[in-house]
Design a protein that fits this description.
This protein has 21 helices and 18 strands. Bound molecules: thiamine diphosphate.
Length: about 550
């Protein structure tokens, strides 16, 4: 508890059990807020939501065995999306290790490939240093999850706490600076480029470098696109914004990547959802790749000008060098003309209905009802993609979703964690009738703790995204994607002490959503939308960006 206090931890999400009883006993007098979740997975995702909304390290506690295995998904999720998190797991007594003791699982082994680092405590005096090193590793360099496994007997020993001020890890020295010569080369390449694109990922948000990025883009008319995880790194109401790129990105963004002569990737990792068919990805481009993790450089796409370091540090220097290079702004005129052509020809659009609530309209209605001034968390599926397309984000840390792992069930606990981190910003969740059922137990946590998350279920009665793939790529042979009629989400909400509402009327949707948002405490809104609607446009799996459909 002393260590947590020294690290500035103000909240822990967790769940007790036999093997972490001594640690839980210490919570009684610690003065540290503990939110009792209803499932350890909820605790892990809440820690992620907290970290994403605040930029601080999220903390989750779980017991040994099943408690620890229940956080395997959040740890993997945090690893994929570079979320700073420290997980404390209880472990059986040291004399029982390796005996298949009650609730023994090899947590260290199980989680080895899904954490940035892990500690197995072997002596009680190791605990303070391990905790401080864990926080240091979680938050520095490329952020990620760190696990500390603590055998129960070692956590009940009295030790003197000596503050640990000097975390020095000779084998872990992330490069943050960025090489000045490389930065100059990148600036020159950018100044000479006739068809440049800034391709921005979640790393820019993790590095708190959104304003620096915006300054670079606006120092000239540099076109910007962001990944799903990068939404909010650049104001999406700015005309230099091309929209999101990738599988469900805009045609303008994807075509611009396809025809670009220079792509400056910042905190982005050329995921397959971005590149589509790798051999045909951006065939005319040279690549500048700025990333804090050297392992990302040339992993999928060879970088011509690699720059390893922290975006917050590098981007302003790139802007300065770019200004020095005195690029001719006129050189971009033809490029913008081309981009405007795509924009006009292929805006994001859908066929609206007078009678039904179209899912895309539901997102636009939520934007109107909130004025865009909220944290929007999302689950995984069509509703996630429509949120990314139709809800413009103007600030970083407002869009909380699971990108790399695509974890259904992430949404509600992550929204809960975000709401705890930012109590003054309204927090809404867009979820699907499938996803919400993967962690709906956390509604109890919201009610018990007065966490006023507003949950909007885009209810299409399907595992919509899978149905879409079956429709498009499996001859419409629907296999186990109909979610039927249960549960009654209004009653479910009420059972958990939340307010439940059902909305079916398009005409009053915005106003009804406003009422839901103004209702105190947690609210669950079951919105009935068109059942079979597809998320477009789309780069079909394995296809090239220029062959987008829909
Ligand atoms: C834990 C988990 N299991 C399965 C999947 C595969 N999957 C991706 S999207 C999806 C359907 C999601 O359905 P729903 O939450 O109702 O959202 P919709 O697509 O209808 O908006 C499924 C099953 C997943 N992403 N995560």
């Amino acid at each position: 508890m002393e260590c947590l206090r020294a690290e500035g931890v103000d909240v822990v999400f967790g769940y007790p059990g036999g093997a972490n009883l001594p640690t839980y006993d210490a919570f009684v007098e610690s003065g540290i807020r503990h939110v009792l979740v209803r499932h350890e997975a909820g605790g892990g995702h809440a820690a992620e939501g907290y970290a994403k909304a605040s930029g601080k390290v999220g903390v989750v506690f779980a017991t040994s065995g099943p408690g620890a295995t229940n956080i395997v998904t959040p740890l993997t999720d945090a690893m994929m999306d570079s979320v700073p998190m420290v997980a404390f797991t209880g472990q059986v007594r040291t004399d029982l290790l390796g005996t298949d003791g009650f609730q023994e699982a090899d947590t260290f082994g199980i989680t080895m490939p899904i954490v940035k680092h892990s500690f197995m405590i072997q002596h009680p005096t190791e605990i303070p240093r391990a905790v401080h090193e864990a926080f240091h590793i979680a938050r520095t360099g490329r952020p990620g999850p760190v696990l500390i496994d603590m055998p129960t007997d070692l956590t009940r020993v009295e030790i003197d706490y000596q503050p640990v001020g000097d975390v020095r890890l000779p084998g872990y020295q992330p490069t943050t600076e960025g090489n000045q010569k490389q930065i100059r080369l990148a600036a020159k390449a950018l100044a000479n480029a006739r068809r440049p694109v800034l391709y921005v990922g979640g790393g820019v948000i993790n590095a708190n470098a959104a304003s620096e990025l915006t300054e670079l883009a606006l120092s000239d008319r540099l076109p910007v696109t962001t990944t799903l995880m990068g939404l909010g790194a650049f104001p999406s109401t700015n005309p230099q914004w091309l929209g999101m790129l990738g599988m469900h990105g805009t045609r303008a963004a994807n075509y611009a990547m396809d025809e670009a002569d220079l792509i400056v990737a910042i905190g982005a990792r050329f995921d397959d959802r971005i590149t589509g068919k790798l051999s045909e990805f951006a065939p005319r481009a040279k690549f500048v790749h700025i990333d804090v993790d050297p392992a990302e450089i040339s992993k999928n796409v060879p970088a011509h000008i690699p720059i390893v370091g922290d975006a917050k540090n590098i981007v302003p220097r790139l802007t300065a060098e770019y200004k020095n290079a005195q690029a001719d702004p006129e050189r971009l005129a033809a490029w913008w003309e081309r981009i405007e052509g795509w924009r006009q020809q292929h805006p994001l659009k859908y066929e609206d209905s007078d009678t039904e609530i179209k899912p895309q309209y539901m997102i636009q209605a939520l934007y109107e009802a909130t004025g865009g001034d909220c944290i929007l968390a999302s689950d995984v599926g069509q509703h996630q993609m429509w949120s990314a397309q139709y809800f413009p984000f103007d600030k970083p840390r407002r869009w909380i979703n699971s990108g790399g792992l695509g974890t259904m069930g992430f949404g509600l606990p992550a929204a809960m964690g975000a709401a705890v981190a930012q109590p003054d910003v309204p927090t809404c969740l867009i979820t699907g009738d499938g996803s919400i059922q993967m962690n709906s137990q956390e509604l109890a946590t919201c009610s018990e703790n007065g966490i006023p998350v507003k949950v909007f279920i885009m209810n299409n009665g399907y595992l919509g995204m899978v149905r879409q793939w079956q429709e498009l790529f499996w001859d419409r042979r629907y296999s186990h994607v109909d979610t039927g009629s249960w549960p009654d989400f209004v009653k479910l909400a009420e059972a958990y002490g939340a307010t439940g509402m059902r909305l079916t009327e398009k005409k009053t949707l915005v106003e009804d959503m406003r009422k839901a948002i103004e209702t105190p405490g947690p609210v669950v809104v079951d919105v009935r939308v068109t059942r079979e609607e597809n998320t477009y446009p789309m780069i079909a799996p394995g296809a090239a960006a220029r062959d987008m459909v829909g």
